[in-house]
Write a structure and sequence with these properties.
mainly alpha; 0% strand
Length: 453
């Protein structure tokens, strides 16, 4: 129908509405939208229409095209369906291209890894298999059952936890309780089990956390590659991966594997801090010590061993200035005879050979006079440290023996219990303030390093 014919038709409808009266006129006005939407004479040439998508041939005459693609009433639907069809095809093509490129990307990733990296991956895979394979085959040990029971109580009601030295530190109950809480929430999400029925809480899932920490111990030698060498660190990881003791305790729900992990992490982080002087390693060292303290009371003995090593290291370093105070000529050979000066300052004392058998022993050492003085100074420093340690150990053992007799005496049992309770409170306060001071020191050190950089 042409535009002129449309105008004639609308003018005839208007004259008919005026002849019919006000009632029909109001009805006609209600159709104003139809009149407004009527096609008008174009003011400019129309733009070419978008070509319609190809339609499959059906082999016969299907009549006029009145579907959503070409019908005048559904022009908007045709546009939407065309866009949706195009985006769907583009998405499918992108997925197919990604799948076709996936093997090449995987091969590039495999080729880009070094032999050492694949060796580490193999060691960790062996460790994971040994720790997670058939994890629930063995029934829970008595200690495991107690730790699992109180961890489940903590997962259901965290306020029910109370520290008991018989069960050791709180870390394991918090870590295991977190795992149980996660499993209980997953059961609720997937509608598994019910009240009093928790199929996902069993012997295997109760040992997931210690198995993860056991796997972490195998990975820790990575931090000692510079000190042990690449092959040495990898060999240490392999020995930890297949060690019967570490495999056993990695599949055992008790505090042993957590404590070993934190102690090993403390050593690794301390070595990394001594090498790089980065505050992040100092913070990790402190965190490892705090978590070890929250795991097992044996931290006191371990810190005593660690402190003894640090004391020996300090004594070894302090022996260098001590060597400058020793007399020269501890042996028959001179510096020029055995390689020249070592860089140490000359002793202010005159040359004086060591007397007796000690002098003859020192004289036979194939080193310069300065090196002999340094070796003698280090030996004297370590012997002095050992003597001090022996005196402290003797005092400590005597004190423990006296306390043991005092505690076991029935006449002083009540007083001993009260003294132990007071000691526990004081210890908690001291450790609390020490922890706060340590945290403040780490934070201030980090801020100082940030401002310095």
């Amino acid at each position: 129908m042409s535009a002129r014919q449309d105008d004639d038709r609308h003018s005839q409808q208007a004259r008919g509405a005026q002849a019919k009266g006000p009632a029909d006129l109001s009805a006609w006005e209600g159709q104003a939208a139809l009149a407004f939407s009527a096609p008008q004479r174009p003011l400019a040439p129309a733009a070419p229409a978008r070509p319609a998508p190809a339609r499959p041939e059906t082999g016969g005459d299907t009549g006029p095209e009145t579907g959503p693609e070409t019908g005048p009433e559904t022009g908007d639907k045709a546009e939407v369906s065309w866009l949706a069809g195009a985006s769907g095809r583009e998405l499918l093509a992108a997925i197919q291209a990604w799948v076709r490129r996936l093997p090449a990307r995987l091969w590039d990733f495999i080729r880009s890894r070094s032999v050492e990296q694949w060796a580490w991956f193999a060691v960790l895979l062996i460790a994971a298999l040994l720790r997670f394979w058939d994890l629930g085959a063995k029934p829970l040990h008595h200690d495991e059952s107690m730790h699992a029971f109180y961890s489940l109580l903590f997962a259901r009601d965290p306020s029910s936890y109370a520290y008991d030295p018989l069960l050791h530190g709180p870390f394991q109950f918090h870590a295991e309780g977190f795992m149980f809480s996660l499993l209980l929430n997953l059961q609720a999400i997937f509608h598994v089990g019910g009240v009093g029925n928790n199929p996902w809480i069993n012997d295997a899932t109760a040992r997931i956390v210690p198995a993860l920490f056991g796997l972490g111990i195998v990975a820790l030698p990575v931090g000692l590659r510079r000190e042990l060498g690449r092959f040495g660190a990898l060999l240490a990881a392999l020995l930890l991966a297949v060690s019967p003791s570490f495999v056993y305790f990695s599949r055992f729900l008790r505090e042993d594997i957590y404590f070993n992990f934190f102690m090993f992490a403390l050593v690794v982080c301390a070595v990394r801090f001594a090498s790089s002087r980065k505050m992040v390693w100092l913070a990790l060292t402190a965190a490892s010590g705090v978590l070890a303290y929250a795991t097992f009371e044996g931290i006191y003995l371990t810190l005593a061993i660690f402190g003894a090593f640090l004391a020996a290291l300090v004594a070894w370093e302090l022996a260098v200035p001590l060597a400058r105070l020793l007399p020269k000529g501890l042996g028959a050979a001179s510096d020029q005879e055995l390689g020249g000066d070592t860089g140490l300052e000359r002793s202010p004392l005159p040359a004086q050979p060591a007397p007796g058998a000690l002098g003859r022993l020192i004289a036979r050492l194939p080193m310069t006079d300065e090196a002999r003085r340094r070796a003698l100074a280090r030996a004297l420093a370590l012997l002095a440290l050992a003597a001090v340690g022996a005196l402290v150990a003797a005092w400590g053992l005597h004190t423990m023996k006296t306390l043991s007799a005092y505690i076991q005496d029935k006449a002083t049992a009540k007083a001993a219990d009260a003294a132990v309770a007071a000691l526990e409170q004081r210890t908690v306060l001291v450790l609390l303030y020490v922890s706060i001071a340590l945290a403040a020191f780490v934070i201030l050190s980090l801020l100082w390093q940030i401002t310095r950089e």
